[in-house]
Here is the input.
Amino acid sequence: MKQPNILWICTDQQRFDTLGCAGNNFVNTPHIDALAANSAHLEKSYVQSPVCMPSRASFLTGRYPRTTRLRQNGQTIPADEKPITRLLAEAGYHCGLVGKLHLAPADPAVNVTIEARTNDGYSEFSWAGDPHDSWGAYSGYTSFLAARGRKFETQAHPDCRYVEIGMPKEDHETTWCAEQAIDFIRRQATSPSPWLFSVNMFAPHHPFNPPENFLQRYLSRLDEIPLPDAPNDDLSTKPVYQAFDSEGAYGRTMPYGRNMSATDHRMVRAAYWAMCDLVDEQVGAILAALEETGQHDNTLVIFMSDHGEMLGDHGIYLKGPYFYEPAIRIPLLIRLPTRIPPQRHTGLVEMVDLAPTLVDACGLSAQPGMQGRSMWPLLTQNGDASHHKSSVYCEYYNAMPFHRSPTAQLTALRTNDHKIVVDHSHDDGELYDLVADPYETQNLWRDPASLPIKAELLTQLSHRMAYTVDPLPARLSEW
Here is the structure.
């Protein structure tokens, strides 16, 4: 059977409930909703870290963050780690990327002006760490703007200090990513080789700066936009990082927090959703290129994000050492018309499962270093996702530099009905009954009546941690 092409769209910091097909009645996402209707829609998909680099290393390699050794932002993935793109390139795929890869540092503040690369398999690499022009000519997006006589700039919004007016649609980084993808798809239409293209858009990552006309759609309905869930949650009953970050995100280095007014919260939500709307419009343009070039039927399409966004829930914005649903649950759609029947799955899925799924989809040999479980039988045989995994496991090992006294070391386990978080730095934690308390407000960690379920979940968590041991190097003999 012919190997499928792979169009892999990965947004940045897009939580699970930002699509119409996920029940959001405010966003305007008709193209992604249509994709979902013709895809496997995996409704309970979870990343293995709530932070960019550990999460990306995990789903690209099929290995857990501590196993890849890229468990923190600002590290470089070791050269012996093999992302799925490298495996596909070695199998004859022509691989390209636009946007961020984020498997190594890229920070102008420390004179690292372009992301260092290991053997990642991409032969076309149009990189942009983020939309800002700090990267100079190293950024494909900055060069794109320069060719148009433009420069990246935003304006303060007159009604909200937490929102900016961003670049117009035609000059936006999201549009640049889409145009690069469309060009690649058209060029590959007559190629005898299968291809993979990663569309790694920066949106809807903060700062919250959509094009003005996309934000304008929401302003007439601003008072209808719901406020964050549990904005006044009693964070004193939870690990210390949460109360700290509720007074200013990223360890109080950014202004977003629970002291914002109701109007500010709604404006930020409107801006975030407007960025999601722009993503949808450009995804529609990319999918149309597949149709126009006759590649629709043999292209496996993935739509996902690298992690979520707190968006004011529990009084917290952005991301950090917490594992609430908005932080770790993401959208995941997988379409391959000739092999995957449209279906909605409500069972638990880990993003570490994605790389082994692509191995199976492309007919490659099993990779002994991968720790995820392939979803391919589930996707192609219309299986029951409830039998795929009984839990998801997440890690935070000093993943961001904002909590140093002591460093934040946490692990988490989510089952169908419960979630447990262990703060190893403070001998503290969280325990939630997700059936009785879906918004995770009542921490049962110290509740005497919850000791039996706490003990059971701690046991399950220890088992999951044990199986993050690296399966490599492979055993060569009995002795």
Remarks:
- The two ends are 40 Å apart (CA to CA).
- Residues 5-391 form a domain with the Alkaline Phosphatase, subunit A fold (CATH 3.40.720.10).
- The first strand starts at residue 5 and ends at 11.
